[in-house]
Design goal:
Elements (H helix, E strand, L loop, with lengths): L1 E5 L4 H18 L4 E5 L11 H8 L5 E3 L9 H5 L20 E6 L2 E9 L10 H10 L6 E7 L3 H10 L6 E5 L9 E2 L5 E3 L6 E2 L8 H10 L12 E2 L1 E7 L6 E8 L1
Parallel strand pairs: 1-2, 2-3, 5-6, 6-7, 7-9
Antiparallel strand pairs: 1-12, 4-5, 8-9, 10-11, 12-13
InterPro entries: Metallo-depent_PP-like (IPR029052), YmdB-like (IPR005235)
Organism: Mesoplasma chauliocola
GO molecular function: 2',3'-cyclic-nucleotide 3'-phosphodiesterase activity; metal ion binding
Length: about 250
């Protein structure tokens, strides 16, 4: 089984890059299952119902998110009816699911969304939340984790702590793709950050002049998504059909 996990899709340029490449990518790479992080989909923050439908119409199995998921009030109106749109499980008592199990190609694939505690919006302990999840003793063959966090160290530490328990661990949030994809010692496929799918010459998706103005002056500036050439970033994780263990992880940047 081959699983495609795509990093934070940022606004219209990110959506356009996704739309342009997804069908050919699925065909050429023989992809069986697709996960995208959609928390920046709609004008850079959160995801509208229209854009949720956009992903479902373009072969996405599960949509993960992060700290911006509820920045669009519309999400509150529909997230409880869309179990395949996840919010971080440890994001206090907010509506929506933190995980979902999807049956695909005779495999039960569990996708779990978590948010880090370091330099992020306040949330429940990510380790306690993970233990609560594991104590549910759910029935699945493959466990994929989108860990939405700020610091490299927190992502690596968490992945190593659950090495061999998680099938595929991907970091999101920093919007910069890391070059450390590998299989950890006990078998977990790992990358610190998938990277953003959005405009290359931007400040993590934002119009550069907006970010520069705020940094220079300290004044509040309404950020606008950047325009320009966009990349699609993510990884392909290959799973052994017999053991359900990860056997490779390939970084992609299109």
């Amino acid at each position: 089984m081959r699983i495609l996990m795509i990093g934070d899709i940022f606004a219209k340029p990110g959506r356009d890059a996704f739309k342009k490449h997804i069908a050919k990518l699925i065909e050429s790479k023989k992809i069986d299952f697709v996960v995208v992080n959609g928390e920046n989909t709609t004008h850079g923050k959160s995801i509208s119902k229209e854009h949720y439908n956009f992903y479902k119409q373009n072969s996405v199995d599960v949509i993960t998110s992060g700290n911006h998921i509820f920045k669009n009030p519309e999400v509150l109106q529909y997230i409880s009816q869309t179990p395949d749109l996840l919010k971080p499980m440890n994001m206090y008592k907010t509506p929506g699911n933190g995980y979902v199990i999807v049956q695909k190609n005779n495999k039960k694939i569990c996708v779990l969304n978590l948010m880090g505690n370091n330099f992020m919006d306040p949330s429940n302990s990510v380790y306690e939340s993970m233990e609560d999840f594991l104590n549910l003793k759910l029935n699945y063959d493959i466990l994929l984790v989108d860990f939405h966090a700020e610091t490299t160290a927190e992502k690596i530490a968490f992945a190593l702590n659950y090495d061999g328990i998680i099938t595929g661990f991907v970091g999101t949030h920093t919007h910069v793709q890391t070059a450390d994809e590998r299989i950890l010692p006990k078998g977990t496929a790992f990358i610190t950050d998938l990277g953003m799918s959005g405009v290359i010459d931007s400040v993590i998706g934002i119009e550069p002049s907006d970010a520069i103005y705020k940094q220079k002056t300290g004044l509040i500036k309404r950020f606008q998504p950047a325009n320009g050439i966009a990349k699609l970033n993510g990884v392909i994780i290959e799973i052994n059909e017999n053991t359900n263990k990860a056997i490779s992880i390939e970084r992609i940047s299109i």
